[in-house]
Amino acid sequence: MKNNILGGLVIFMVVVTCLLMLDDISSKSLEQTTYETIKTEKVETNSDLAILESEE
Q1: What's the Cα-to-Cα distance from 21 to each of 12, 14, 24, 26, rounded to whole Å?
Q2: How far does the chain reach from its first CA to its final CA, in angstroms?
Q3: Alpha carbon separation from 23 to 3, 14, 47 (Å, rounded)
Q4: Cα–Cα distance measured from residue 20 to residue 32, given in angstroms and rounded to the nearest whole number
Q5: Alpha-carbon gap, residue 11 to 9, rounded angstroms
Q6: Which pLDDT tens digit goes with each residue over 33-47?
Q7: Model pLDDT, residue 33
Q8: What's residue 2's pLDDT?
């Protein structure tokens, strides 16, 4: 009995997924989302690392 319920649930989820994919593919009325370009700028930062010099 559990195998039938599990198999039915898997088939149901596959069918729902396929229907959602077909709906997304077939809908042409939706506008495509556009993303603005991201501007990056190079910032020169000084290193806060200490330089240790050892004398031998």
Answers
A1: 14, 11, 5, 9
A2: 81
A3: 30, 14, 54
A4: 18
A5: 5
A6: 677 777 777 777 766
A7: 65
A8: 67
As a whole number, the mean pLDDT across the chain is 79
Measured from the Cβ of residue 6, the count of other Cβ atoms closer than 10 Å reads: 10
Does any domain span residue 22?
Answer: yes
Q: Per-residue pLDDT for 8 more than 70?
A: yes
Query: In which domain, by residue range, is 32 found?
Result: 1-36
Cα distance between residue 12 and residue 38, in whole Å? 41
Domain count, the chain: 1
Nearest to 32 by CA among 40, 24, 41: 24
Polymer length in residues for the chain: 56
